[in-house]
TrEMBL record:
The lineage of its organism: Bacteria, Bacillati, Actinomycetota, Actinomycetes, Mycobacteriales. Its cofactor is heme b; FAD. GO terms for molecular function: 2 iron, 2 sulfur cluster binding; heme binding; nitric oxide dioxygenase NAD(P)H activity; oxygen binding; oxygen carrier activity. Residues 1-138 form the Globin domain. Residues 143-243 form the FAD-binding FR-type domain. It comes from Rhodococcus spongiicola. This is nitric oxide dioxygenase.
Length: 387
């Protein structure tokens, strides 16, 4: 696509993401048109579409922002196409989705009037999206879904569980990627989770799950999961990784259970003899939110290239966690206090590092802004759009 077409697309889409109300209205418009064209597809989706609408707009926002990086965009679309096989999506469904998306974007109020040029640009982008997704789905030789059995469920905090499973066959994910998961307590509802360990030939996988207030799936994962439950897991997504050949050291910033994909990468790197230096900042609101700090400390003891820095916004644990804050293990960096973005950026720009941020959407956004204000180039910062 040329520069003028990209500008037109971004101009129209800017109004879609200008507020949460606009985002929701756009997503509702799309799904209304899509289900009108293919009513039978409504049964492929959960009764509550709130989460689905949020993920739809987030994915499209990532696509529009990434129009300047064709290689990354095509890889992302191919992953989406493989992932959508879990819904039973077929090639014929993509034509209806393409027309529904074009109708929805036409109905967006924008400062840029709808024109023949805009129509051509959007048709070209939508064709790229649907063709790439459907081609990747058709070409994938892996299963659409993997089945796994829960073998351990450990409540490490009142609202956080570490859940371990054994898959019927190994899932070929790369450390740093994430997958979508469906549990028996919430059929047809999918939740994105990042494996906290690298893949292995035994099919073992570990997830760290925090209960989201008002959520549909995470409370059931934390509160209702039992050993023996059968979960369904779909194709890997995401591209967080350490480029060991770049010659650049690494800054990793984790918020809460956003630690999982960073932990998996660090564990994978520990199998290699030579690695770049890694500073891993692990953050939470309270000291108890640093739930896996002892594991990370043990990793750092045997891997001198790894530095673990604990950070919490508060000095004391909340009332519902009636345990004193333990002394840091010998050799672990002293726990720092403050919002993670402010803490990390006070050390400088980190301009020479590969930077990965993983946590809640608000944590990722504020931390990325803090780093950019400190001088970190935006192209050095990586995070996943959907997790």
């Amino acid at each position: 696509m040329d520069t003028a077409e990209v500008r037109l697309i971004r101009s129209h889409f800017a109004n879609v993401v200008s507020s949460s109300a606009h985002r929701d209205h756009f997503a509702r418009t799309f799904y209304t048109h899509f289900f009108a064209r293919l009513p039978q597809c409504r049964s492929l989706f959960p009764a509550s579409m709130d989460g689905q609408r949020v993920r739809f707009v987030a994915a499209l926002e990532y696509i529009v922002r990434g129009l300047d990086d064709t290689d990354r965009l095509l890889a992302f679309l191919a992953q989406l196409g493989r992932d959508h096989r879990k819904y039973g999506v077929q090639r014929g469904h993509y034509a209806a989705a393409a027309n529904a998306l074009l109708d929805a974007i036409r109905e967006v109020d924008s400062d840029e009037p709808w024109s023949r040029a805009a129509d051509t640009a959007w048709r070209e982008l939508i064709a790229l999206i649907t063709n790439t997704m459907s081609d990747a789905a058709d070409a994938d030789n892996f299963p659409a879904l993997w089945e796994a059995t829960v073998v351990s469920h450990e409540r490490v905090l009142r609202d956080l569980a570490v859940i371990r499973l054994e898959c019927d066959s190994p899932i070929p994910y790369a450390p740093g990627q994430y997958v979508s998961v469906q549990i028996p307590q919430r059929p047809q509802m999918w939740r994105y989770l990042s494996p906290a360990i690298p893949t292995n030939p035994f099919g073992q996988i570990e997830f760290h799950v925090r209960r989201v207030s008002g959520g549909w799936v995470s409370p059931a994962m934390v509160n209702q999961t039992s050993v023996g439950d059968r979960w369904r897991i779909s194709s890997p997504l995401g591209g967080l990784h350490v480029d060991v050949d770049s010659g650049r050291d690494v800054l990793m910033i984790a918020g809460g259970t956003g630690l999982a994909p960073l932990r998996a990468q660090v564990m994978d790197m520990a199998h290699r003899g030579i690695n770049p230096r890694v500073h891993l900042f692990v953050s939470g609101v309270y000291p108890c939110d640093l739930y896996d700090i002892e594991t990370l400390w043990h990793l750092s003891l045997s891997n001198p290239w790894l530095t673990i820095v604990p950070v919490s916004e508060e000095d004391e644990n909340p009332w519902w966690h009636p345990y004193p804050v333990p002394e840091p293990p010998h050799g672990l960096h002293q726990r720092l206090r403050g919002p993670i973005g402010a803490v990390v950026s006070q050390f400088g720009s980190w301009a020479d590092r590969q930077v990965q941020i993983c946590g809640s959407p608000s944590m990722v956004k504020t931390t990325a802004y803090a780093l950019q204000r400190a001088g970190t180039p935006v192209e050095s910062i990586s995070y996943d759009p959907l997790r």
